[in-house]
Amino acid sequence: MSEEPLPGGFVGAAVRVGATVRKAPPADAVFVRRLLGFFAERGWSGAPRSLGVDEFGREVLSFVDGEVPWGAGAPPVGDEALAAVARLVREFHELTAGSVLAGGQEVVCHHDLSPGNTVFRGGLPVAFIDWDIAGPGLRVQDVAHVCWQFVPLGPGVAVVDAVRRVRVVAEAYGWGDLSLLVETVLWWQDRCWRGIEAGAAEGVPAMVRLRDAGVVGAVRSAYEWTVCHSARLGR
Ligand SMILES: Nc1ncnc2c1ncn2[C@@H]1O[C@H](COP(=O)(O)OP(=O)(O)O)[C@@H](O)[C@H]1O
Ligand SMILES: [Mg+2]
Hints:
binds magnesium ion
């Protein structure tokens, strides 16, 4: 069967083969397989199914039909879809809360929720993909990541829209503490650019690619923008 390269991934080279996706296994492949298996058992359709490993050692996942926004030209996610994203996050947080997979933490977090890791149908989110760095965590970590990536929070965004859309996310998820939410956005932005810089300095290929594409500077600017508007966003 033919292999069709999938656009959008910065980290690996995901390809589509028929109704499946093949990509390099994540660092903790055992955990991710268990998590996707858990979602399948519960009948939750918001994630791809884990279908094992192929003859080249690649992870095999079910292909989720729909549109994945890609590139700078992708239109922003509207308020209605944004609220639906937050509700979809709430769904898998509720499923994993108190489970063995949450490892004594609040929930299992996706840890990389963004439009490019979301499949939309008819303009609404139906699944999150790319669970490679999922792990036990705090609800606010995913909610903050959604704010950063989907609102989004950074230069070029009108503050009045950002303030409204952070509230759309918080209300749809059922998250009350806006100040902690914004603090956690800053935590993500700060650790993101530092992580890319450190990884690139060590020669990790994906991090070198990200740095060379200007992502360190862009995320630092987003951090500074969020610092600047944090009082209004978090009030
Ligand atoms: N299960 C899936 N169903 C549909 N499309 C997928 C699926 N997995 C990956 N893709 C497509 O491949 C791209 C890259 O995959 P992803 O898992 O996000 O890799 P990366 O780790 O490189 O970001 C995604 O942006 C999406 O377009
Ligand atoms: Mg991805």
